[in-house]
């Protein structure tokens, strides 16, 4: 119980520090949410500043915003005046969760399969082809992968839409593939390297000498410890999916949380950016806790060392 309370306290402190740093960095950036090429009349600008508490001292603004957040109110959006930040996130988060979750699941499913296959055939032609493809997948950034997929499957073959979002599976296929490919490639390489190390361990060589089949060695003795590095990689993989969603959602015109983050940053929509940072930060904290629990289940010694 004490350890659980300590972890909850660490998580809350992390979120507070993240939100506070983001708050002051946004305010330090040049420009404001209502700046434009054609300046508004002074009385209009003053009314807007008063409405959104921008006429108050910086620390008073921080206190007002933090108090609202503690009540569950992320505030009004500056650039989308008909919506609150809570409404924008509630509408966009399911879209991003669907695409990001499917992309991570796809990366794990195919990455583990290809990594195990390559490890069992280390040094063969199949192994070299798979690892070459994985290296190519790692080398291609998402802002290159996404347009290539559009050019191939939408423009050339006319199989899938080039962009937009209608909630159907056809509009989700290309964004999910674009998000999944780099993680799939890394997962395959990591799985192969980890399994090769485990399969070369002394206790497995001894078990192989006693006549155990390679299939039994793999599933009964090698796979569980071989997955530990992959499980540890899940946290940075999630961050990769979250950061990549901003690019992919922009390219495909998807109304997800990553696109709102980019638009909010460009338009100095302070409350929207801070709201997205808090939600994404909380999601990462929860995922890190789940990953730690999964690693402790795979190897109880990790829990004893915590």
TrEMBL record:
GO terms for biological process: transmembrane transport. InterPro entries: MetI-like, MetI-like_sf. It is found in: Cell membrane. It holds the Pfam family BPD_transp_1. PROSITE patterns: ABC_TM1. The keyword Repeat does not apply. It is a multi-pass membrane protein. The chain crosses the membrane at residues 97-120, 132-155, 167-186, 272-291. The keyword Transmembrane helix applies. One of its GO terms (cellular component) is plasma membrane. Keywords: Cell membrane, Membrane, Transmembrane, Transmembrane helix, Transport. Residues 93-295 form the ABC transmembrane type-1 domain. PANTHER family: DIPEPTIDE TRANSPORT SYSTEM PERMEASE PROTEIN DPPB-RELATED. Belongs to the binding-protein-dependent transport system permease family. OppBC subfamily. This is ABC transmembrane type-1 domain-containing protein.
């Amino acid at each position: 119980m004490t350890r659980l309370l300590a972890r909850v306290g660490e998580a809350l402190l992390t979120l507070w520090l993240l939100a506070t740093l983001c708050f002051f960095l946004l305010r330090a950036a040049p420009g404001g949410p209502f700046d434009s090429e054609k300046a508004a009349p002074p009385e209009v600008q003053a009314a807007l500043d008063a409405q959104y508490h921008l006429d108050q001292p910086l620390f008073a603004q921080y206190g007002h915003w933090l108090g609202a957040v503690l009540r569950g109110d992320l505030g009004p959006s500056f650039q989308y005046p008909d919506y609150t930040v809570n409404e924008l996130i509630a509408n966009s988060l399911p879209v991003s969760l669907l695409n990001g979750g499917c992309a991570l699941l796809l990366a794990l499913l195919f990455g583990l399969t290809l990594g195990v296959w390559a490890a069992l055939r280390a040094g063969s032609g199949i192994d070299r082809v798979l690892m070459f493809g994985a290296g190519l997948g790692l080398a291609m950034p998402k802002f290159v992968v996404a347009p290539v997929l559009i050019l191939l499957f939408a423009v050339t073959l006319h199989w899938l839409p080039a962009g937009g979002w209608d909630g159907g599976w056809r509009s989700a296929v290309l964004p999910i593939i674009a998000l999944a490919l780099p993680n799939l490639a890394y997962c395959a390489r990591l799985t192969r390297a980890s399994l090769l190390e485990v399969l070369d361990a002394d206790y497995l060589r001894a078990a192989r000498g006693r006549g155990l089949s390679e299939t039994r060695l793999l599933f009964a003795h090698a796979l569980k410890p071989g997955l530990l590095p992959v499980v540890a990689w899940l946290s940075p993989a999630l961050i990769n999916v979250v950061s990549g969603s901003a690019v992919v959602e922009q390219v495909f015109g998807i109304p997800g949380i990553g696109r709102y983050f980019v638009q909010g940053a460009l338009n100095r929509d302070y409350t929207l950016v801070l709201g997205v940072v808090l939600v994404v930060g909380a999601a990462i904290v929860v995922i890190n806790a789940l990953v730690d629990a999964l690693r402790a289940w795979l190897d109880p010694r990790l829990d004893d060392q915590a």
